[in-house]
Amino acid sequence: MLAASIAAVAVAKPLRIVAPGAPIAPGERLQLGAAPPAGASEREFWTIVSGPGMVTRTGSYKAPYIVPAGGALAVVRLTRGPKETPITTTAELRLKAGSFSGADSCAGPDQERLPERGEYVPVDRLPDPVSTVLAEYPASARARGIVVSVVVSALVCRSGRVLDAEVAWPHGTNPDRELEKAAVAAALRYEFTPPTSGGQPIAVWVAIPFRFPPPP
User: Fold this and answer.
1) How far apart are CA 135 and CA 204, in angstroms?
2) What's 65's DSSP letter?
């Protein structure tokens, strides 16, 4: 009888989001968690309820590049379970006031803010690479004989320099962090012609492919 009561309490334990207590810096990326952890067959879906930033379906949150004075709050929601009987919970993420290094001079004169990855931005001239860099092939990957292509999403500023970059791993892929760091480091050193919209320079995201091992 006692065992049954304990089991009932465990099942009834409320779902909560595990998030950092400290304010999140502009442009910072972090993986949100949940307690209790999801079961092997349970599906989870993350969304932004209100506030700035973006969150992926798997709970990876990225703060905006510029946070106004006084900071900001973003509210995220986690939905778990079947569509018919979902369980939901929300949490507030505190954002630290300030700007990601170089963000203040990145957006175009007519852009109110920097675009998020995947956001549509109309352009009349896409950025063309004028200076490219081969990604270093990590020794750990070489030892394992890894042969793979990686696509990096890079934020190209109105000047043509790259402000930020991240690897767009396909859903269900196990990321290789050493290859990811090598690809991102190379992408950050790329230079492009300035992208434009309506004749004005703007900031846009572009895709940069890398191959491991790199071509001779």
Assistant:
1) 22
2) S
Q: Which structure tokens are listed for 15?
A: 């779902």
- pLDDT single digits (tens) 152-183: 999 999 999 999 999 977 766 778 899 999 99
Q: How far apart are CA 111 and CA 163, in angstroms?
A: 16
Structure tokens at 185: 């480091």
Helical spans, DSSP H, in 58-138: none
pLDDT in tens, 81-130: 888 889 999 999 999 999 999 999 999 999 999 999 889 999 999 999 99
Q: Which helix (H) or strand (E) holds 207?
A: strand 204-212
Residues 167 and 184 sit within 8 Å (Cβ to Cβ): yes
User: Of 90, 92, 99, 96, nearest to 23 (Cα)?
Assistant: 96
In order, the DSSP letters of 131-160 are: E--PPP--HHHHHHT--EEEEEEEEE-TTS
Structure tokens at 25: 């810096």
Ramachandran quadrant class, 59 (left: phi over 0; alpha: psi -120 to 50; beta: rest): left
How far, CA to CA in Å, does 114 sit from each of 15, 31, 41, 65, 109? 34, 22, 37, 7, 11
Say how many C-beta atoms besides its own lie within 10 A of residue 214's C-beta. Answer: 13
How many angstroms separate the Cα of 171 from the Cα of each of 146, 167, 174, 198? 19, 12, 9, 35
When computed from its CA atoms, the radius of gyration of the chain, rounded to whole angstroms, is 21
